[in-house]
Amino acid sequence: MMKWLNKLLSTPSTDPLATALSSILGFTPENTQFYHQAFCHSSIEEPKYGDNERLEFLGDSILDSVITEYLYHKLPTKDEGVLTDIRSKMVSRHTLNKLAKEFKIDEFIQTNLGGKIPVSVFGNAFEALIAAIYLDKGEPFCRNFIISKIIKKYFSLETLEKEISSYKKHFIHWTQKTNKSFSFELQSETGESHNKSFQMALVLEGSEISKATASSKKKAEEATAKIACESLKI
Amino acid sequence: MMKWLNKLLSTPSTDPLATALSSILGFTPENTQFYHQAFCHSSIEEPKYGDNERLEFLGDSILDSVITEYLYHKLPTKDEGVLTDIRSKMVSRHTLNKLAKEFKIDEFIQTNLGGKIPVSVFGNAFEALIAAIYLDKGEPFCRNFIISKIIKKYFSLETLEKEISSYKKHFIHWTQKTNKSFSFELQSETGESHNKSFQMALVLEGSEISKATASSKKKAEEATAKIACESLKI
Predict the structure, then answer these.
(1) With an 8 Å Cβ cutoff, are A64 and B65 in contact?
(2) pLDDT beneath 50, residues of chain A
(3) Contact between B133 and B142 (Cβ < 8 Å)
(4) Digit-coded pLDDT (tens) for B95-131
(5) Cβ atoms of residues B89 and B95 within 8 Å
(6) What's this model's pTM, rounded to 2 decimal places?
(7) Which position among A14, A62, A227, B20 has the lowest Cβ density within 10 Å, counted as fewest Cβ atoms?
(8) CA of A32: how far to CAs of A36, A63, A117, A136, in Å?
């Protein structure tokens, strides 16, 4: 769809890609070759500006570091376990694919994959786009773009905090930090083989502090850890 | 050993930590509270400046992003698979622990662990030190420190490139990029159960391109992939 663009000389004023992107990004790209590269999947043979895999490698790291520093400063009372969990959610494949949709990557991407383009192709191109902005406009501009146009626009730290990905992980981390002993104990296993029910208890320093029942040991552990984290306010 | 330092008011001119660090880092720290925090393990109870876990979270990301950008620019012809492998080696636990030794972290670290301090405590504190430099002196200074005092001093990209961690991974990545079919095929399995020998062949687009024998399937695959990568110059 965008192949004809590549045939044009890509100077900022004449490259239609710069115009098309400016309404989405909120600024006009200058060195458009980086953006052409960011939208070029590795299935394209002999691309004029190269494919986007090296840019994806760079963009992934830039996004991660800007988000890390942002969380470090914005959540000064949260320990690194919580910060790590929040960051994981913000840079997950799922999130990147959603952001790619917001930034209309599907309208710009060039592939040779036919009609069936895996959604990860868009998420990867979104990371490459971050690198293109970094190389085109420099570090402070790109950092500001990530904070104002991505983090502040699409994430709520409050919501993310409430959705900590693994309460078990969070609980174990807390026991290591506070040097407390704990164990997850299977109290009962009931039901037929395809419809089992497991009751797990969480024992902290010899005392049972929570218990939960679920369809797998793993789910019951997670549920009991969640109850414990909430009652201990950790 | 350094506990008495914490009792002193930490202004740059009077804090002995600033003087002690200046000969190791090559500059004089200004806001020494960040460095006190970087050297404070979480086993210390109620530390004056907090422990180093949040700084480790930040430092890990800073180190990763500076190394990523450095490799991106320094190795413009290498694909992201090679860049990822080289970066993995540069930021591995093993490497961080070695760097911690070079920067004499063991002389500064404060812990409540007794005599048996796991070596990872030093590597983690090294990452925290990176964050302390970043917060004390700012992003451009810290980036320059990482490039000149860590990367250029302790790493050879040429050597790292030669030691790509997994030839199998590298080979598979290349087949995906070039859209070629391949398979690893077990040709023979000989010897007693505790002394087995596996011969694996690597078949590319229907033709056997290499074979190797080793004590496990995994090792034989790696060995045959290495031969293939070298003969294909990939």
Answers:
(1) yes
(2) 1, 3, 7-10
(3) yes
(4) 999 999 999 999 999 998 887 888 999 999 999 999 9
(5) yes
(6) 0.74
(7) A14
(8) 6, 20, 24, 8
Query: Which residue of A63, A71, A72, A77 to mutate against B (max B Cβ within 10 Å)?
Result: A72
pLDDT single digits (tens) A79-129: 888 899 899 899 998 999 999 999 999 999 999 888 788 899 999 999 999
Q: Is A127 a catalytic residue?
A: yes
Query: Is B58's Cβ below 8 Å from some Cβ in A?
Result: yes
CATH match for B167-232 among 3.30.160.20, 3.40.220.10, 3.90.45.10, 3.40.50.2000? 3.30.160.20
Q: How many residues does chain B have?
A: 234
Q: Chain B closest CA to A131's CA: distance in Å?
A: 10
Query: Nearest-CA residue of chain B relative to A64?
Result: B61
Tell me how far CA of residue A178 lies from CA of A224, A234, B42, B52, in angstroms.
19, 11, 9, 15
Q: What is the phi/psi pair of residue A112, to 5°?
A: -120, 30
Asked if the interface predicted TM-score (ipTM) of this complex is over 0.90, the answer is no
**Closest Cα in chain A, distance from residue B17 (Å):** 25
Handedness of CA B116, B121, B126, B130 (dihedral sign): negative
Q: Is B60 a catalytic residue?
A: yes
Residues of B in contact with A80 (CB under 8 A): 53-54, 56-57
Please check whether residue A56 touches B, CB under 8 A.
yes
CATH superfamily name and code, B3-162: Ribonuclease III domain (1.10.1520.10)
Ranges of CATH 3.30.160.20 domains, chain A: 167-232
